[in-house]
Structures are given as structure tokens and as C-alpha cells.
Amino acid sequence: MASTEASGAPPVAEQKIEAAEQKIDPYNVSGGVDEAGNAKAIDYNRLIELFGVQPLTDAHLKRFEQVTGKPAHRLMRRGLFFSHRDFDKILDAYERDGTFMLYTGRGPSSGSMHLGHTVPFLFTKELQEIFDVPLVIMLTDDEKYLYTRNKNGGVQKKGQTAEDFLEFAHENAKDIIALGFDPNKTFIYTDYEFNGGHFYRNASEFESLLTFNQAEGAFGFTGSTNVGLIAYGAKQCVAAFPSSYPELFGYKDYRYPELDPAGKRRHKDLSKIMTLIPCAIDQEPYFRMLRDRCERMTDPHPKTALILSKFLTALQGPGGKMSASDANSAIFMSDTPSQIKNKINRHAFSGGRETLEEQRALGGNPDVDVAYTYLSYFLEDDAELDDLAAKYRSGEMLTGEMKQRCIAELQKFVAAFQERRSKVDLDAMREFMRPKKLEYVGNPSPKKPVPAAPAAQAGEGESAPREDGKLTKGERKAAKVAAAKAEKLALREKKEAEQAAEKEKKAEEAA
Ligand code: TRP
């Protein structure tokens, strides 16, 4: 316990170790510190247990391949996307209904994105191409504004107004577009610009299902957290509901100045469409909160499915993630070829041996080698990747050579990105940010297709809304049933929460 003593802290060894536990939530990502004060790698198996998510298994990959007729994405095969909730149900929905919605997002904390930020988007893009489904991308300028101001003790610093974060969101949108999304199938929005209409009604209803105590429990808020940040989570949650974006599905919203009566009510048909969220596992606490409330909405939604990734390792090694605020930890999408080369050569943690002789005789460890790790995310060719690992292990390949291979691959990826990015102008961005009916086919032969746009199914499924916007008889009945169900669920949840609190109290007393 040398480190404890050195800091002059009393010898409460157990607590000290606990304090250095890994901490993963939307606002913290750290692998923790061991007893000697060294940064530890994030323990993802522990996280699976702690969060209660499911591991993504070979059986899932097989089923994915069988349902889509395509090989599982390399990031799934190589375990970067490693866990899920109800991923099976998404595959079921695709087989049965023919479609689902993809939803992901980004907090625009600065105008530039790094390599780690591109990972969930690249993965999402390929899922979208494989399934041919609609995708929404939420840029949370509001979240980042509120979070930053909160972090600064309520002070609004220069360059950190709401407008500054909106501007970051626009820059990030262009970066995301440059990854190659299709504007006919993809809607990108910032909260400051889009939130209103049916989205805001869903948000308001969701806020009514969330108490301060619950938000505090999920995110560690305190009495001095600004109320904007406390309420923000509801927005990130309802962004997963297709009913928050009626126009993308050919339904009417109800916004000034149109005020079209066909959009007066949120559209119940849209609440039947399932959603899959690909994201890094730090976002899971939001979506646990979401899943607990999906079925309590006036129009209940099926529980949102998740596919969760690990973090892209920092250049310094597996203890942390690439961070925009630490320039030496990250490769930025705006870096020049020589910056990429220098960062990898100087900062990338090596799994190799101290000396050339030792490396030749004993071989290195690709599993902790950062250059190899990056290749495992960005190199498509399985055979080459296996070959690199084998040669590194045997000592045939040296650290410098592995770095060189990595540098070449990343330079190629970043240069191609920058070439596309230079062509994304304001008009291109507008095309993605305009709410319009998206064009997608989904599964060409579903078992029981979901109704498409209202025009295509007049008279069936959702009954035509009344001109005065009031509920039809059928809708009133359905609302009553839904309300009764929601009340029952709420009661059950309350009871469960009380039981959990009771249990905790007993455990504390026993300790
Ligand atoms: N809170 C996320 C961030 O800070 C942004 C976000 C919003 C998001 N919705 C999402 C991320 C859905 C993943 C999936 O980056």
C-alpha cells in the first residue's frame, strides 16, 4: 500500500482500492488504478455483469449471417462490439416485420472528431447497408452545453455558448456525412434545431415517467446539478422512438406554421417499429432507463435493442480511451500523414520486447500492442491480420514494422476521409437535416410486413385521424387499455424499487 502511505491517507486499504475501481458511465470512462497506482485495462467482462447486458456470442454472429446472407461485420467478429440487449429480437423483427430503425448519436464537445468517434458510425453505416433500414443520428448540442456549464460550476466560459455547441454539431455532422452515409435513408439533426413537435411530446411524457431520484441514481447527479442536465436524459431516450420523427416515415408532424390536423396526435403505428442502437457501452445507463419506460408510454414501444462496443484504446494503451482533450492520446480525422506517423511512432504503446534480440527470441504480444489493435479495427482482411499477429508473436516481426503497417492503413483511411470531407458543403448538410420521408426497402420478403406510410394503407391499421384531431372511439379504447397497463407497470416498478431499497438497507446494516 505504498501509494496510500505516501499520500498521507489513513490506512483504510479496502476503501482506497475501491476508490480506484473502474468507472464507466456517460460522463466517465476509466479502467481504474491497481494497488501499485498503475492504470488498469477496462474489464469488459465485469462490465457485462455489472450492467446486466448479454455477451454477443458466436451463435448471434451465425444467426446474423443466416438472416442477412452477409458475413458479420469485422467489428463484431473481432469483438469490439461485444455485448447487447435483445439483438436477437431485432433479427426477429427484421424477419417478421421487414424493418426496424437504427439510432445513434454524438455529443459535439468540439469541432473535430478523432478516430475513436468514427467507429460506431462506421459500424452503423454497414448495418444500415446490410439491412437497408432508416437511420437517425442525434447531435446533442444541448447535452454538451449543459454538461460543460455544469462541469464549470455554472460558469459559461468564452467559446461555450449554446451557439458554439450548435456550431460544433454542424462541423461534426459534416464529418459524419463524410463517412459515406446516404441522405435518402439517413436523418441527422441537432437538438437545438429539431426538438419540438412529436419529439418534444414524447420527451415531455418521458420526463413525467422519470423522477429526480431515478436520474440521480443512474448518473450520479446531485442537488447542485443544473436542472437542464437532469432532464436531458429523457431526450436522448425518446430519440429512440420512431414516433418522434413522423415525417421520416411519411406521417405528419404538427409544427408551426403548418399545424396540419393529420399530425395532431402522435402516430400509434410508429410505436410498433423496433429500434436498434449501436453505441459504446458508456451510453448504456441512458438506455437502461429507456427500456424500463418504453412500455409505459401512452403508445407503448417495444423495448429498444442495443449493440454495444468497447472503447477505441488510447495511443498510450488499454487503460483509457481516445480523448479529444488529450491530443497525444488520439488521432484526429484532421491530422496530416506526418502527424499520424509521428503519433504512432512516438506514442503508440508497444506489445514488443525491450530489445531487438529479445523480440526475435521471445516474440511480442499483439493483444496489448496499440498499432496491432488499431489494425484489428480498420484492416478488413482477416488473413493478413492473422498473419501479422502470428509473425509478431513468433518474433519474425518487430514493433517498428507493426507500426509501419498501422501508419500506412490509418493514413489511407484518414486521407480518403479528408477527400470526401472537403466536398461536404452546406447544401449537402441541409439534405441530411431536412425531415423527409426516407427511402428504404428493408427485408424484401418479411413474414408479416408492418404498414408503410399512411397513404399506402388508408382505412387499415391506424384509423384515419379525425379532422378535429380528437380521438376516435377505437383510439379512446386503446388509450384506456394502455393507461391501465402503464399504471400496473408503474406500480410494479415502484414495488421493485422499494424492495431493492429495503434490501440495500439490510445489507448496509449487516455490514
Ligand atoms: N450522449 C452521447 C455522447 O455524449 C450522444 C448520443 C445521443 C448518443 N444519443 C445517442 C450516442 C445514441 C450513442 C447512441 O456522445
Q: How would you explain this protein's 3D organization?
A:
- This protein is of the alpha/beta class and 511 residues long.
- Among the domains are: 103-304, HUPs (Rossmann fold, 3-Layer(aba) Sandwich), CATH 3.40.50.620; 321-421, Orthogonal Bundle (Tyrosyl-Transfer RNA Synthetase), CATH 1.10.240.10; 475-511.
- Helix content is 47%, strand content 9%.
- It has 21 helices and eleven strands.
- Strands 3-4-9-8-5-6-7 form a seven-stranded mixed sheet, sandwiched between helices. It has a two-stranded antiparallel sheet with strand order 1-2. Strands 10-11 form a two-stranded antiparallel ribbon.
- Helix 7 (115-131) links the parallel strand 5 and strand 6 (135-139).
- Helix 4 (58-68) runs parallel beside helix 6 (87-96), helix 8 (141-151) crosses helix 9 and helix 17 (370-378) crosses helix 19 (399-421).
- It is globular and about 80 Å long.
- The model is unreliable at 1-18 and 456-463 (pLDDT under 50).
- The chain binds tryptophan (TRP).
